[in-house]
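Predict the 3D structure for this chain.
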Amino acid sequence: MTVKSMTGFGRGEFEKGGRVWTAEMRCVNNRFLDIKIKLPRGYTALEERIRKKIAENHQRGRVDLALNVQGDFTDLQKITINVDLAKKYKEALSDMSSKLSLEEDTKLSQLALYPDVITREQQNEDVDSVWPIIEQALAEAISGCDAMRIEEGNCLLDDLNMRLRGFVENIEKIETLIPSLIEKREQSLKERLEKLLKNVDLDPMRLSQEVAIMADKTDVTEELVRLRSHISQFESFLHEETAVGRKLDFLIQEFLREVNTLGSKINDAETAHLTVELKGELEKIREQVQNIE
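Done. Predicted structure below.
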């Protein structure tokens, strides 16, 4: 059983050829999968490959991935010599020497200092050749992030199980109060009728009908059955090996619907605090479910 949180951090690092690649991943809660990738200049062609790798392990949440590289890039430096331009500089210097009657003393090192005679250009790396290196750093970051998500997910699972047990206990308390609640309402109805009719004899059949109507209005059997079904489903979802956050979130809404109906039907001061506790537990459960992938 693996319940994963959507919150985590992972870092991966791999060194080769004098360069160090670093991948850092941060993920937080989000209703859908939202991947943001930051890459060094010249490596944007790898974005889709990285996005695919992340999507293989994340089904929802906001994921930020930053890839950085540092080290020796001399192998990617391209030096270009503009011989034609150097000749023109040399001719200009010779012409100036002749016109000014100065001795010409042009050296190679001097020509090299003139603009654009020697230029240096940073070439883009072959992304296909460097991808296996980046992939290893990325895999390490994903693995570290996943471990944190699983650890937090286990904490969430323990908390949800505890709160679910409390929820079930309150449901059982309400169930035990229902018979006495109906009995009290039957007695209350009888007393009101006697007060209204005073010395008039009550028709037992009529009283039975009124009691039956009242019992039907306060019957919460259907709501209790559905709540127990939802509880069973909730526990079942927690044992699934896939992302269950959306399923749990939907189920919480169904829980609330039944609890609201239950509260309005019972409408009794003795049990009102129990329905309030049910809603309070559901709200806490909902907050935790928002963290689950």
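Residues 127-197 form the longest helix (71 residues).
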